[in-house]
């Protein structure tokens, strides 16, 4: 009986050792797959950044070109912006590789928003913004003479956008309707509200159309990828307050320039920003 018990114990020990070895092998395989997945995601992100950088560089060339007709210039700009839209729409959180705060992380945040700086050059600026809760709105602001692309990565957003009227249009309205406006008020057309979920394509905000906009989270923890072509560089970001509440679609609105809101600040999330040598 003692021999049988010893044999059983030995068999159990062997089985336990085999199970441990199998678990270790599975863990190693999972780690290996995770490393491969991370490398592939990083390669995908770098490939994406190279492509949108080339698009932005071409858009800058078109802006300075005197050899292309206005019509051809406009057609190519539209083709390039549509191509950038398609590229941004393919982005996923896995490709970016950022770890977003979970419910407990969101609850412990003191800032109303969180931020990840991904990549910046003379041609583009790529970053990620997120909201702690639905109780905060990304302030109304502009992207002066930039192409902007917003891709929701988690949750959902509502984007309110406005188009600044041309100098002549503003001049007519100031003369006929608002003849006592101060210089810090801009007349813009309300372009409506666009709702986007993480499964949807990106939203395009052009240098002219929809350039002034705000973003409101529809879910706690909502996050979005933000691509600017080019980035701000030395250009200032102007913040606004809509004087007219609940505007109607295509209605002319008065947007008053304001200082950067004091309650707007972000918590920086840990992330290995892509540098120029790595990008190349």
UniProtKB/TrEMBL annotation:
InterPro entries assigned to the protein according to its UniProt record, in alphabetical order = PCO/ADO, RmlC-like_jellyroll, RmlC_Cupin_sf
Q: What is this protein's record name?
A: Cysteine dioxygenase
Q: Which Pfam families match?
A: PCO_ADO (PF07847)
Organism of provenance: Wuchereria bancrofti
Name the keywords, alphabetized. Answer: Iron, Metal-binding, Oxidoreductase
Sequence segments annotated as region (Disordered): 1-23
Could you tell me one molecular function GO term of this UniProt entry? oxidoreductase activity, acting on single donors with incorporation of molecular oxygen, incorporation of two atoms of oxygen
Any GO CC annotation of this UniProt entry? mitochondrion
């Amino acid at each position: 009986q003692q021999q049988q018990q010893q044999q059983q114990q030995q068999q159990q020990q062997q089985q336990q050792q085999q199970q441990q070895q199998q678990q270790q092998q599975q863990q190693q395989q999972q780690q290996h797959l995770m490393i491969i997945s991370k490398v592939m995601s990083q390669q995908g992100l770098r490939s994406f950044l190279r492509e949108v950088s080339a698009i932005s560089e071409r858009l800058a060339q078109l802006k300075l070109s005197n050899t292309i007709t206005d019509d051809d210039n406009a057609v190519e700009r539209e083709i390039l912006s549509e191509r950038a839209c398609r590229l941004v729409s393919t982005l996923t959180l896995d490709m970016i590789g950022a770890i977003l705060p979970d419910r407990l992380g969101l609850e412990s945040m003191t800032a109303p928003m969180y931020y990840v700086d991904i990549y910046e050059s003379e041609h583009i600026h790529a970053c990620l913004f997120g909201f702690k809760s639905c109780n905060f709105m990304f302030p109304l602001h502009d992207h002066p003479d930039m192409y902007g692309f917003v891709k929701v990565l988690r949750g959902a957003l509502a984007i309110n956008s406005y188009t600044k009227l041309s100098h002549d249009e503003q001049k007519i309205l100031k003369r006929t309707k608002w003849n006592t406006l101060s210089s810090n008020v801009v007349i813009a057309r309300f372009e409506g509200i666009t709702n986007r979920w993480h499964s949807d394509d990106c939203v395009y905000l052009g240098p002219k159309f929809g350039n002034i906009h705000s973003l409101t989270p529809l879910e706690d923890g909502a996050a979005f990828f933000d691509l600017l072509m080019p980035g701000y560089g030395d250009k200032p970001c102007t913040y606004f307050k809509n004087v007219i509440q609940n505007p109607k679609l295509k209605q002319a609105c008065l947007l008053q320039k304001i200082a950067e809101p004091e309650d707007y600040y972000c918590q920086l999330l840990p992330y290995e920003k892509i540098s120029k040598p790595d990008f190349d």
